[in-house]
Amino acid sequence: MPNASNVDPAELAKFSDLAHRWWDTESEFKPLHQINPLRLNWIDQRAALAGKRVLDVGCGGGILADSMARRGAAEVLGVDLATKSLRVAQLHALETGTPNIQYREIAVEALAAEQPASFDVVTCMEMLEHVPDPASVVQACAALVKPGGWVFFSTINRNARAWALAIGAAEYVLKMLPRGTHEFDRLIRPSELARWARQSSLVLEGSSGLEHNPFTGRYWLSDDTRVNYMLATRREQA
Ligand code: SAH
Fold it and tell me: Is there a smaller number of Cβ atoms within 10 Å at the N or the C end of the chain?
């Protein structure tokens, strides 16, 4: 059964508190700005965004959603449950004249009930590790995409190295992220995410690691999925 109250208010509050800084590329959101061109290209190379109807789940201030609209998607809908972040996203689109973009405050499970099988591409990046029932989000994403359409996920792996880099270094040593941004128990192994995808009729098409050198500040894609990673999946044809 899809979970209708799949939200952790403390998680939303963390993002709401920072909402005014979503588009400050030197803020806590700097890592998302830095990885955005990499993930945008990875998605676009597979799903060819131009002319597509796209949904971005857990869109926050719209870093990815905005860039997909600018890449030529026919329509991008960004959804989140943090009101302030959505306002910031909307304002940014207005100020910068982003075409074909809309934002809505609605749970992904509710949207899936409202308009099933209606998007060509669904993205859900850096969000699953913040919800109580991530499998329910995966299921809703699968329900929202058209048969044959693409669903992309990204999140953080759960192991000692991921703890050391994504939490230890980022939150405690380098202080790139506020303490408590990520909780170890909520991190998700690729095998777990792949299993939830499979259970929702999504076929795994590819994966990529997102690596970071904290000394040079550089990010790049690689086969190493031990810390941050993305999965590309496709819904089975009906
Ligand atoms: N996907 C964006 C933002 C990632 S930050 C990007 O990668 O650039 C995580 C986002 O998940 C925040 O905006 C937060 O408000 C959102 N979020 C957390 N729990 C959520 C839920 N249950 N439903 C929808 N969004 C949620």
Answer: N
